[in-house]
Amino acid sequence: METRLSPGLPHQFEMHRSQYPSLFKNKEKLSMAKRVSEMDAKSHGEIVNSFLELEANYAVHWREVVCRKAWLVGPVGLCNEKLIEQSHRGGGNKSFRTEELLQWLDSKHAGSVVYICFGSMANLVISNDQLMKIAIALKESDRHFIWVIKSSDQEDYTDWLHHQRMGSSDTYIKPSSYRGCSHCGWNSTLEAISAGVPMITWPMNGDQFFNEKPIVEVLQVGVTVGAKEGGWYFEERQLIEAETIRSVIERVVDEGFEGEAMRNRAKELKEKAEAAMQEGGSSYADIRNLIGELMDRRNELLI
């Protein structure tokens, strides 16, 4: 399978051609993306849901090499300090018994629960056959788990599970209890980082393969299942075998050196994320700078 390096970036990531977003494979979509980029270049700058300590090299690259303004104001999810506010994000069922879930998590050994959620497009990107392999892996791993499944047409394969629809952030509010299987969407990635949760990475499409690379290779807070093909529909991607999934689960939940080192790195990132949003932190400062620039620009227009 053909691989390529990502040129001109602070880190050189090896990517399979099949992992690139679909817009790189479609002339019409690529043309539209170029037009969007041209319009972006005419803007005053970008407001980014990230924080300096997470990707300092890329912030410098954007400002000094691309020569564009950017304000890193995240993780914005940390603005919701109350557990009940966090659990109502993501469009989930507000009647879901959050307190019951938290009590259940508290009853489990730290880091022993596996959380699986593939985002809002899960019903398109996960086939029934793949669901079955995930189920087999979970059963063979003999781990407690929370599995978010959003499509009713998949219930025949999951009738042995007790599940209820919830927002994707519901189980990111008790990080000490679980490890997350993530599709590497940026919001989910930041939620896991903010919670200090090591990740099982399983990108599907879009920017998710690009997000996976620094998680696994630079930050080293995740283990990949080895997905090599991207696509908006499950017919476009290969099946990941149950044994592979089970093996990755064990590596992330492992109490040995690898698992402990990963957890320590995730904890350090969590502390940096929290500090960035507090007064005197990098994101706090960028928010103040952004407001100041907008006010100055407003005053210039009024003169």
From TrEMBL:
<dbReference type="GO" id="GO:0035251">
    <property type="term" value="F:UDP-glucosyltransferase activity"/>
</dbReference>
<keyword id="KW-0808">Transferase</keyword>
<keyword id="KW-0328">Glycosyltransferase</keyword>
<protein>
    <submittedName>
        <fullName>Uncharacterized protein</fullName>
    </submittedName>
</protein>
<dbReference type="Pfam" id="PF00201">
    <property type="entry name" value="UDPGT"/>
</dbReference>
<dbReference type="InterPro" id="IPR002213">
    <property type="entry name" value="UDP_glucos_trans"/>
</dbReference>
<comment type="similarity">
    <text>Belongs to the UDP-glycosyltransferase family.</text>
</comment>
